[in-house]
Amino acid sequence: MLSFEAFEEKTIKRETLFTGKIIEVALDEVALPMGGTAKRELVFHPGGVGIVAITPAEKMLFVRQFRKPLERVILEIPAGKIDPGEGSHPEVTGARELEEETGYRPQKMTHLASMYLSPGFANEMLHLYLAEGLEKVENPRAMDEDEVLEVYELTLDEALERMKTGEICDAKTIYAIQYWQLALAKGRECHG
Q1: What is the per-residue pLDDT across 94-123, written as a single tens digit (0 to 9) for each?
Q2: Gyration radius of the chain's alpha carbons
Q3: Where does the Nudix hydrolase domain start and stop, copy by copy (predicted)?
Q4: Among 145, 147, 158, 167, which one carries the catalytic annotation?
Q5: Do 93 and 127 fall within a single domain?
Q6: Helices (DSSP H) in 12-105: which residue ranges?
Q7: Is residue 190 part of a domain?
Q8: 143 and 82 in a common domain
Q9: pLDDT tens digit string along 136-171?
Q10: ∠ CA(130), CA(131), CA(137), 5° rounding?
Q11: What is the residue range of 39's domain?
Q12: CA separation for the pair 66, 167 (Å, rounded)
């Protein structure tokens, strides 16, 4: 097995190209392990949280919204960016986002997985949580000012059909549906 050093690209120079509200974009010049140099375009992101929320009626919560990079409306699990101060407690982000986007509050958040979404150019890590003991909130936290969402509650079969039609097309949501499908196949309950 090759050592880390056999793969490592050492940064020679970094140029910050853009610093925005959510991301930072940089251009690195790197020394390649086999000799020579290359350029690497990088995106730095604080990370996010996705929530697998299944109601006592065995329906998963989804939000339908417009995604500008795709120029289309898609259906996805509730999710959001980790705000400053929440980095070491992504479950706090998850509970906040679930309430803002769906009007439900969880009694418990269980970590399922953490994953890098596009490690070829970005460091964004998504933490996936199972929201348990869902309670409908009478006066939920307000959504972000720039969000327009529609909440859906779908059965597993309905969610799988939405995957087939392409309305559900993002990795976190497909992962969440697959988790739910496997949990049901093993006889585990995912709601609370």
Answers
A1: 999 999 999 999 999 999 999 999 999 999
A2: 19
A3: 44-176
A4: 145
A5: yes
A6: 90-102
A7: no
A8: yes
A9: 998 777 767 777 899 999 999 999 999 999 999 999
A10: 165
A11: 4-44
A12: 11
